[in-house]
């Protein structure tokens, strides 16, 4: 059920304040893995993250620095009129589409994809190999209106920064959605881009809260899942499973990360299932929450997201993606219990 404006407003304190404040101390039986954690009233500054104005400037700079290599195109406008920009780097035969920040308060995928775009545009042998093998298309920040509220901590209008300015959850506006799409121009812009670019793979970056890997006390770095709706074509689901396996492998090599499967849901109107139902393999990536790790954890979140998206881009570019066994995705552990800080 969609919360009313009033219930969304009532829910805001939990969003505005660190989650630590909204929760009691853990019960003695709860697992309490190491951090980093945000404790008590420790303020979390979001000033170091890319604002909407900075994002527009950054993309313009990238295009100006690499003419003919980086293309930036406005694909629509948000409810409040902010530009939605798609960036294309490379002209390889496979197309990877990276979506970030469809929920306005889930920002780190945006920071990571900016780094991926810079690496792909770089005048280096690695950059050239990437561009020749894969066309990277990114929409860095699908919900700029939500981010504007969240980064500025401006909740005076009672809108949930996760949703768009018409109070729509954009991640329920895909596939056979019943959302009035006139109220969700951001989702329409993404849907149009998908149909225009026909991506071989879509990665959709989000944040969850803090969980352990099932059967362990280890904190989950990210949880991932392909299009699992029963009507998704088997070859489409298999490409999603290949991407999940590549992501799991890439972070296992980094030594510290815990990648799990995300709990299965057949909700058809998420980007993961909705775009997969349309024939575009789409993987949901849910990183640990930036509000729970605080500034100290931001660098790690960006690195982990970047490792995952770069590994998928590289595997598409060098052709190794097709040799990945879809069944390798099933080797990832399940996500376990939610855990809270122990401060
Ligand atoms: Zn999300």
From TrEMBL:
Keywords: Carboxypeptidase, Hydrolase, Metalloprotease, Protease, Signal, Zinc. SMART domains: Zn_pept. Residues 48-343 form the Peptidase M14 domain. The keyword Cell membrane does not apply. GO terms for molecular function: metallocarboxypeptidase activity; zinc ion binding. PROSITE patterns: PEPTIDASE_M14. Coiled coil: none annotated. Pfam families: Peptidase_M14. InterPro entries: Peptidase_M14 (IPR000834). One of its GO terms (biological process) is proteolysis. Residues 1-29 form the signal peptide. SUPFAM superfamilies: Zn-dependent exopeptidases (SSF53187). Its cofactor is Zn(2+). It comes from Isoptericola jiangsuensis. Belongs to the peptidase M14 family. GO terms for cellular component: extracellular space. This is Zinc carboxypeptidase.
